[in-house]
């Protein structure tokens, strides 16, 4: 007698930049190693990969997207955007995509793992749009906003991977900026979430590296510098990076 397989679909909740996509890749590798899926494949998707502009097309588009993920993991970022409300009415094209996804999650459960991701409150609203949706997911993992100190450690790892180092002054500048965003609330969320958490750390480091390189290129005898000074991001480099990155963040109320 063939025994039905338990659901392996998952929910990842949390703000952007907290490692959801990275962990999804790890999950794909683990499941492939265990023989749960055929290969360590992660297909990253969003609303545009499922929802079409005309009636009947969303089902076809969704089916094609799912077919690409068969044998692996289908990762849907900002999954709550699949079904949107417009003037108090449910988006029919998004609902068509969701109905198709639900059917395939059940019918292809032996060769497909679906992970939906997004803010916790938004995912909860999505789950309420369909009675059968919540029961499809056996596992839910919450990803928390990083603390400023954790972001600094992430920044150091990113810098080290690029053969760069943060001076004590640069680290202080970074921590000051991260704390400011951590303590500020915008549109009901921590500003650090809107900035992107880990992505924010990467943006600051990469911008600071550019300012460091420009500083070193301006009239300094590079041959007279040692490796440590060539790799070091100083406080001024980081301060300029913070000003540049913050100028492009959507920080309006």
From TrEMBL:
<dbReference type="InterPro" id="IPR041627">
    <property type="entry name" value="AAA_lid_6"/>
</dbReference>
<dbReference type="InterPro" id="IPR027417">
    <property type="entry name" value="P-loop_NTPase"/>
</dbReference>
<feature type="domain" description="AAA+ ATPase">
    <location>
        <begin position="6"/>
        <end position="147"/>
    </location>
</feature>
<dbReference type="GO" id="GO:0005524">
    <property type="term" value="F:ATP binding"/>
</dbReference>
<protein>
    <recommendedName>
        <fullName>AAA+ ATPase domain-containing protein</fullName>
    </recommendedName>
</protein>
<keyword id="KW-0067">ATP-binding</keyword>
<keyword id="KW-0547">Nucleotide-binding</keyword>
<dbReference type="InterPro" id="IPR003593">
    <property type="entry name" value="AAA+_ATPase"/>
</dbReference>
<dbReference type="InterPro" id="IPR050773">
    <property type="entry name" value="CbxX/CfxQ_RuBisCO_ESX"/>
</dbReference>
<dbReference type="InterPro" id="IPR003959">
    <property type="entry name" value="ATPase_AAA_core"/>
</dbReference>
<dbReference type="GO" id="GO:0016887">
    <property type="term" value="F:ATP hydrolysis activity"/>
</dbReference>
<dbReference type="Pfam" id="PF00004">
    <property type="entry name" value="AAA"/>
</dbReference>
<dbReference type="Pfam" id="PF17866">
    <property type="entry name" value="AAA_lid_6"/>
</dbReference>
<comment type="similarity">
    <text>Belongs to the CbxX/CfxQ family.</text>
</comment>
<dbReference type="InterPro" id="IPR000641">
    <property type="entry name" value="CbxX/CfxQ"/>
</dbReference>
